[in-house]
Specification:
By secondary structure, this protein is mainly β. The chain contains two helices and 15 strands. Bound molecules: protoporphyrin IX containing FE (HEM) and 2-acetamido-2-deoxy-beta-D-glucopyranose.
């Protein structure tokens, strides 16, 4: 029969401690909350909770590597699955991209798509789209995007937008308790008419998907509403 001696207990504790240590170091290195979130050394999909130190808004953040935008999403914590609620989306895109798209339902077709591109020195256009096939998606008027902020510099363009109509759609919607699949698409080619949300654009050069719960995307409802209030 196995008896717990002091030595046994100590080696058990050491084993637990060392296995925790190696587990932590095997996890993809989560970046800090500053501009290091665009670390050039990173080339794999990472999802984590990101809190903006200035606004205190926390998001579910997805990043893949330097050629793909960082996508951040947030929802009011009171939101129920498959109901109407506003959703926040921030896209921080490398300057090399002509457009970046985000799919709220995890694929190209039959779910709301956000397609964003830079427009002018510090502006961006966010276009609401829907596609029934794998061709240029149509304008989707059941979802509306309002811009919280947009900016552009020599390395990146960024837009943060709030959507009304992206949480629920024909035959689908976001789950606030279970796992959701999201997807993205990007192209290096600039859109034909940057100032026109109905612009046409060329097919993506890269696409990806990820599945996550919205647990890390939940913002206290009052803070969420205050944050998106001035969006136009
Ligand atoms: C001119 C516009 C577009 C064209 C012609 C187009 C065409 C296609 C085609 C042919 C495929 C299947 C082949 C492949 O995997 O490459 C595909 C897949 C995909 N597209 Fe697009 N696409 C366009 C815009 C978009 C946009 C704006 C988004 C997202 C916002 C998007 C997201 C996806 C995703 C996630 C897939 C893989 C999953 C799936 O097939 O549903 N596409 N697209
Ligand atoms: C450029 O913009 C991105 C996105 O807003 C930001 O993360 C980055 O710090 C900016 N770079 C400089 C040099 O200001």
């Amino acid at each position: 029969m196995y008896t717990l001696t002091l030595t046994n207990i100590i080696s058990l504790l050491l084993l637990l401690l060392s296995s925790q240590g190696s587990h932590a170091s095997a996890t993809p290195n989560p970046e800090g909350s500053s501009s290091s979130s665009l670390d050039l050394s990173k080339r794999q999909a990472i999802t984590r909770k990101y809190c903006n130190p200035t606004t205190s808004i926390c998001y579910l953040e997805y990043s893949w590597g330097p050629t793909v935008p960082v996508f951040r999403i947030a929802v009011p914590d009171s939101a129920a699955s498959n109901s109407n609620f506003d959703t926040l989306l921030q896209i921080i895109a490398p300057a090399s991209l002509g457009w970046a798209g985000f799919s709220w339902g995890g694929g190209m077709t039959l779910n709301p798509l956000a397609v964003a591109w830079p427009n002018g020195n510090n502006g961006a256009t966010v276009s609401s789209r829907w596609s029934t096939g794998r061709t240029l998606p149509s304008v989707y008027s059941s979802a509306k995007y309002r811009t919280v902020s947009a900016s552009r510099n020599s390395t990146h363009w960024m837009v943060e937008t709030v959507c009304s109509g992206c949480s629920k759609w024909n035959n689908g919607g976001l789950s606030t308790t279970g796992v959701n699949t999201f997807a993205w698409a990007v192209s290096q080619t600039a859109v034909s008419q940057p100032g026109n949300s109905g612009s046409s654009f060329a097919i993506h050069s890269n696409i990806g998907m990820f599945s996550e719960s919205l647990d890390q995307a939940k913002v206290p409802r009052a803070a969420f509403e205050a944050y998106v209030k001035g969006a136009k």
